[in-house]
Design a protein that fits this description.
single chain, 170 residues, alpha/beta, 5-stranded mixed beta sheet, two-stranded antiparallel sheet, 35% helix, 19% strand, globular
Length: 170
């Protein structure tokens, strides 16, 4: 069982102080080509949003309120079904994504199932190329378009990570 999970968060602002996390997605990264095409994803919706005009979600004032506790608990159970070790949080921007997930669990008095750290795909790419400044070109390896829907973005990041791992093997 793989302990790696690609995470993407959408929010109305840069931090939990000034905005809200509207939704997030988690992809179980197994790096098994046949299986990886059937993405194993978790999609957590915390705030109903209107169709976006840009990258920042707009809360729908008519959407019913969502209790975040069952969403967080469902994620905990989903992760526990997929790994017996501490899940490793992987993201294109862990400084942003991890902050929101940590806040979700902390605000509910729950232990963050990802622990206290995360991995950045761009840093892995920079290490593979030997160029510390080459932390963005990996995004060209996404097959799923980057739409700012968290499932699309997490799946695209998983595709890119898969390509990076197999490029390294050549």
């Amino acid at each position: 069982m793989s302990r790696y999970f690609i995470v993407d968060v959408e929010s109305t602002s840069a931090t939990p102080f000034s905005g809200v996390m509207t939704e997030f997605a988690v992809v179980h990264f197994r790096d098994v080509p046949g299986v990886d095409r059937q993405r194993d994803t978790f999609h957590g919706v915390l705030v109903g949003t209107l169709p976006p005009d840009g990258p920042v979600p707009v809360p729908d004032p008519d959407a019913p309120p969502v209790d975040p506790f069952p969403v967080a608990l469902s994620l905990e159970l989903w992760l526990a079904e997929r790994t017996t070790s501490t899940p490793t949080f992987v993201s294109d921007n862990p400084a942003f994504d991890f902050m929101w997930i940590a806040w979700l669990f902390d605000s509910l008095g729950r232990r963050n199932p990802f622990g206290f750290s995360a991995r950045r795909i761009g840093d892995f790419h920079a290490g593979l190329t030997g160029d510390f400044n080459d932390a963005h070109r990996w995004k060209e390896l996404r097959r799923t378009p980057h739409t700012h829907h968290p499932v699309d973005d997490a799946v695209g990041n998983a595709e890119a990570l898969h390509a990076l791992i197999h490029r390294r093997e050549r």
